[in-house]
Amino acid sequence: MGRLSIGILGMIELYVSSMVHLLYGFYIFSTAVAWDMSQGITGRFRLSNSNNERESNRTVPLDGSVPPIVLVHGIFGFGKGRLGGLSYFAGAEKKDDHVLVPDLGSLTSIYDRARELFYYLKGGRVDYGEEHSRACGHSRFGRVYDQGHYPIWDDQHPIHFVGHSAGAQVIRVLQQMLADKAFEGYENTNEDWVLSVTSLSGALNGTTRTYFDGMQPEDGRTMKPISLLQLCRIGVIVYDWLNISWLKNYYNFGFDHFEMEWRKAGLSGLADLLLGNSGPFASGDWILPDLTLQGSLNLNSNLRTFPNTFYFSYATKRTRKFFGVTLPSSLLGIHPLLFIRVLQMTQWRHPSDVPLPYKGYRDEDWEDNDGALNTISMTHPRIPVEHPSHFIDNDSECHPLQPGIWYYKIVEADHIFFVINRDRAGVQFDVLYDSIFQRCRKHVFRTTSPPTLP
Fold first, then answer.
1. What pLDDT score does 293 carry?
2. pLDDT one-digit tens code per residue, 8-36
3. Is the pLDDT assigned to residue 62 strictly greater than 90?
4. Suppose 368 and one of 30, 83, 267, 375 were both cysteines; which one would form an S-S bond, judging by CB atoms 3.0 to 4.6 Å apart?
5. Do 254 and 104 contact (CB within 8 A), yes or no?
6. Of 8-17, 53-62, 142-151, 359-368, which range is least confident?
7. Is residue 364 within 8 Å of residue 391, measured between CB atoms?
8. d(C-alpha 225, C-alpha 46), whole Å
9. Alpha-carbon gap, residue 55 to 89, rounded angstroms
């Protein structure tokens, strides 16, 4: 009887979670379509037209005189040019003239996204690498960038990177690839191509949420047969197989290099994809395995904190201790998409019959969270080896900044408080992004002469 009750509660939770995610996704998509339609009807006149003129007047060439700031989106995210006129970073990119917002795969693996980011900046055809592509069962080459968005990028013209959620790990993997000279035809890359890394609610050490969504805690790679992720997997496969061009122009999960569309895969290919015999979900070359504790440990085992790069991290939290029990800190201050997960993540207990994900793991350390990531995961790289770090209450405490150290602070916010919807964060939105941009422009530079200001 007890197991039956648990099973019924699990199905109810799955139904509620699925509906909340589906409705929110539909809301974002329909908002983008409605915005585009309104622009077409009005011919971009009046207020919209004046905004576009103002933005075009601010556009300046990226000639290397001022290091650009690259904003890297997280899971289910999108860059400039997707979802109509919506901004993943809620318009923060308008705060500076030298900002790039790349559109990377929203569900592709950390590795694939790091490769895409390199070619987005340097230009050329995305090369995922022969060995990796063969092992994961996808094409070696992907999208072509006829003109890189910052082709002069090198150690003399470095870049500031800001990553939200999984975007922070993408930046770290890219920097390690640069240090390892992992890009064929680019033998001069090194870690100093990255001037600074800012992690905003960054998935630096994984999250226990992956297990609630459907990843198996036994290995961190396979999925539970009935789960939110299984529904997501089926939806993504059908979406990519149908390959409706106008839909994919609005939003693309990033799996084009797996060639899942109906013209190439056919009905038999669709069956194989759905049965888990082929595709990214079969090979594990997608984002969720990278976000489990086991997957993050494997990634972090090969990632370094470099002595000439500046690191800063904002860890978010929407929990609080009540009489020794960790609970959500607010009823109205947490997005409906995240509220259930905030509560669930405070109650996470690693299965007693499963080996601990790393030496020294304790359940209580992972209770505080923002609905998507555990706060302990966002401060600085911790597993399998803890990297140099320094906690601060106020940004001014870390000036002058020292490279090679992860400065971090904890912010009361949920995981999407500072993205998508600017109004939710209110004045905190400007406070946060102004501090990030000001740090990049006034406090982070390698030369002894003052930095060039925009």
1. 98
2. 766 777 767 777 777 777 777 777 777 67
3. no
4. 375
5. yes
6. 53-62
7. no
8. 52
9. 16
Confidence tier at 50 by pLDDT (50, 70, 90): very low
Lowest pLDDT segment from 42-46, 74-78, 189-193, 271-275: 42-46
Mean pLDDT of 309-336: 94
- The contacts of residue 265 (CB under 8 Å, 6+ apart) are 241, 259, 272, 273
Q: Is the dihedral of CA 301, 304, 305, 311 positive or negative?
A: negative
Instruction: Identify the residue whose tokens are 């999925």.
Output: 223
Contact 67, 98 (CB under 8 A): yes
Count how many Cα atoms sit within 13 Å of the Cα of residue 364 in the half-sphere of its side chain.
Answer: 3
With contact defined as beta carbons under 8 Å apart, do 311 and 405 qualify? yes
CA angle 342, 347, 208 (to 5 degrees): 70
Instruction: Indicate the average pLDDT of the chain.
Output: 90
E strands, 187-257, in order: 194-200
Strand, coil or helix: 58: helix
How many helices and strands, by DSSP H and E, does the chain display? 16, 11
Q: 3-class DSSP state for residue 143?
A: strand
Q: What is the DSSP letter of 70?
A: E
CA distances from 448 to 443, 445, 451 (A): 12, 8, 9
Indicate the pairing of strand 141-145 with strand 124-127: antiparallel
pLDDT tens-digit readout, 125-149: 999 999 999 999 999 999 999 999 9
In this predicted structure, the answer to whether residue 45 has a pLDDT above a threshold of 60 is no
pLDDT greater at residue 331 or residue 276: 276
Is residue 126 a contact partner of residue 115, using CB atoms and an 8 Å limit?
A: yes
Contacts of residue 286, defined as CB under 8 A and 6 or more positions apart, other chains included, come to: 107, 108, 109, 255, 280
**Would you tell me how many other CB atoms lie within 10 Å of the CB of residue 29?**
16
Q: What pLDDT is recorded for position 31?
A: 75
d(CA 31, CA 69): 27
The crossing angle, in degrees rounded to 10, of helices 166-179 and 110-122 is 70
What's the average model confidence in pLDDT over 205-228? 96
Helix, strand, coil shares of the chain, percent, nearest 5, are 45, 15, 45
What angle (nearest 5°) sits at the alpha carbon of residue 65, between those of residues 64 and 68?
60
Give the dihedral of Cα atoms 414, 396, 163, 197; nearest 10 deg.
Answer: -150
